[in-house]
Amino acid sequence: MTTVAADIEIRDPATDELVGRVRPAGPEEVDDAVGRAVAARTGWACTDPAERAGRVRDAASAVRAQAEELAHLNETETGRPYDDGLGGVLAAAGTLEQYAELGPLHRGRSLQGSWSATDLMVPGPRGVVAAITPWNDPVAVAAGLIGAALVTGNTVVHKPSERCPHLGRRFADLLASFLPDGVLTVLDGAGPTGALLSAHEGLDVIAHVGSIAAGRAIAEAAAGTGAKVLLENGGNDPLIVDDGVDPQWAAEQAALGSYANGGQVCVSVERIYCHRGVADEFLAALAQEAGRWVYLPAETGQKVLGPLVDDRQREHVHSHVAEALAAGATAHAGGELPAGAGAFYPATVLSGCTPDMRILREETFGPVAAVRVVDSFEQGLAEAIDDPHGLAATVLTPDMAHAQEAWRALPVGTVKVNAVFGGAPGGAAEPRGLSGTGFGYGPELLDEMTTTKVVHLQPAPPRR
Ligand code: NAD
Q1: 191 CA to middle of ligand 1, Å?
Q2: Is it the case that residue 5 has pLDDT exceeding 80?
Q3: Ligand 1 atom at minimum distance from 235 CA
Q4: What are the start and end residues of each CATH 3.40.309.10 domain in the chain?
Q5: DSSP-derived pairing of the beta strands 330-333 and 348-351
Q6: Cβ-Cβ contacts under 8 Å for 246 (sequence gap 6 or more)
Q7: What pLDDT digit, counting tens, does each position of 107-162 carry?
Q8: Closest ligand 1 atom number to CA of residue 441
Q9: Which of 24, 207, 386, 460 is least surrounded by CB atoms within 10 angstroms?
């Protein structure tokens, strides 16, 4: 049986100061949480959709009212700059509100076999959903999975990341205060607790957002229980910079994609293929842009680069950078471990990166722009495609034929043309390859959270 480790210590990654400790849930607590979710399942499934939605809408209002407190906790536990964290909390409230609108409208289809014979396709809740979430956008990601599960009539056991357990518990408790007992419970703990939960036979769905390794372990556990698995894993997103773009604008886009949230966004730019025609100017502008991303206090015109989530993450990032430099890459900015307290890492620009380097092959998840200069758009596209991940990709090009070619050819769930971030609020995303399976966002997540019963309805038989 999986054993659960000792207490988990959380330190502020900006100062190394102790924030608190939590005791990871063991087998009894996991069993109890799932048991409560199972007991609450029928009552919640039979609750009118409009009432379920109303409760989720009220919870969204409470999240808005507590947004500052939640953003502050986010900063203290994970180092995410306060304004970014506030944006994440408000996005979470918006997502809950969207699902509250969409839940009661979620409907099935029908099919006519003959004038008097109808197939009804009726969606219903799957049952008990485990929502296992990461630390890098903790409130918005949790709100999406939990909101979609609740409005479709599922009960939820939530295990937030062990790197922000106080935030995870505060958010879940806030939501749970608007729900009947057992409809949403929360568990503290790290991977071992997540593993106990994933292997539990009382679950009907495991929705995981996080690393590829954890996603794999969850899929293996679910294979033994029959639970449906939704996996939104990490990526290794390419950015293609085509000939003819303004190099300054492209550098600003590359910096935003590489450095926002310290590069700790699932769809951060992880590798850059830059056309030789603009490469010199692009690299010079990118190095200048990197200089604008600074630790607090930031001045006008500068952008805040918070610490990485912890020293473990910083070691991981620096190992990729150091290995690339040792193998012949050049640093145009950053690339060195700063002295002093905190898990800070500078905005870094590397050129001379080659396909064999881990910095181009694996997710770095840090503020690093790793550039490879290519001789043609076709070479950049071919190298961008040659990767087993499948989360997202960006192409910056003034050439619509290249844009069309890229979005059709890239084997990823989301292609962004001429902006590294964006997309409509409530937009969907379905990863491919190592990056996971199933819709983790948008109205399509409501389909994932429901199962459809087909009813063959025939006319009444002749009476005797
Ligand atoms: P992680 O996989 O380490 O942890 C995520 C969650 O899974 C945590 O709650 C953790 O305790 C749990 N967990 C870990 N091992 C487990 C196991 N064996 N069984 C069950 N649960 C387990 O990931 P992280 O470091 O918290 O998050 C960063 C990763 O998440 C990055 O790879 C990032 O790209 C990815 N991410 C993806 C998306 C997306 O939408 N695709 C969004 C955000 C983050």
Answers
A1: 9
A2: no
A3: 34
A4: 238-417
A5: antiparallel
A6: none
A7: 999 999 999 999 999 999 999 999 999 999 999 999 999 999 999 999 999 999 99
A8: 40
A9: 460
* Residue 301 contacts residue 7 (beta carbons within 8 Å): no
3-state SS, residue 171: helix
Task: Name residue 333's beta-bridge partners.
Answer: 349
Compute the distance between CA of residue 11 and CA of residue 429 in angstroms, rounded to an integer: 33
Burial (0-12, 13-18, 19+ Cβ within 10 Å), 201: exposed
Confidence (pLDDT) at 226: 97
211: CA distance to ligand 1 center in Å?
A: 4
| CATH assignment, 238-417 | 3.40.309.10
What ligand 1 atom has the least distance to the C-alpha of 195? 19
From 266, 412, 437, give the residue whose CB has the most ligand 1 atoms within 8 Å, as the site to mutate.
Answer: 266
Q: Which residues pair with 452 in a beta bridge?
A: 123
pLDDT score, position 1: 46
Instruction: For ligand 1, atom 41, name the residue with the nearest CA.
Output: 232
Residue with tokens 């960006």: 394
**Residues contacting ligand 1 via CB (< 6 Å):** 132-137, 141, 159, 161-162, 190-191, 194-195, 198, 208-211, 214, 217-218, 232-235, 266, 363, 365, 391, 431, 440
Query: Range(s) for CATH 3.40.605.10 in the chain?
Result: 8-233+431-455
Quote the ligand 1 centre to 383 CA distance (angstroms): 27
Q: Among 136, 187, 316, 363, which is best to mutate for testing ligand 1, by the most ligand atoms less than 8 A from CB?
A: 136
Instruction: Output the CA 159–ligand 1 centroid distance in Å.
Output: 11
Residue among 209, 220, 437 whose CB has most ligand 1 atoms within 8 A, to mutate: 209
Q: Residue 177 to residues 38, 246, 303, 322: CA-CA distances in angstroms?
A: 18, 51, 37, 48
Task: Kindly report which listed range (166-175, 247-256, 294-303) carries the lowest average pLDDT score.
Answer: 294-303
Q: Which two tokens stand for residue 208?
A: 């995981």
Query: How far from 194 is each of 3, 7, 103, 187, 426, CA to CA, in Å?
Result: 11, 15, 28, 9, 27
Q: Which DSSP string do the residues of 256-325 spell out, in sequence order?
A: HHHHGGGG-STT---EEEEEHHHHHHHHHHHHHHHHHEESSSP-TT-EE----S-HHHHHHHHHHHHHHH
Distances in Å between the alpha carbon of 418 and those of 52, 221, 228, 252, 287? Answer: 40, 40, 36, 12, 20
| Span from the CA of 64 to the centroid of ligand 1 (angstroms) | 25
**CATH number belonging to the domain at 8-233+431-455, selected among 3.30.1360.120, 3.40.630.30, 3.40.50.1980, 3.40.605.10:** 3.40.605.10
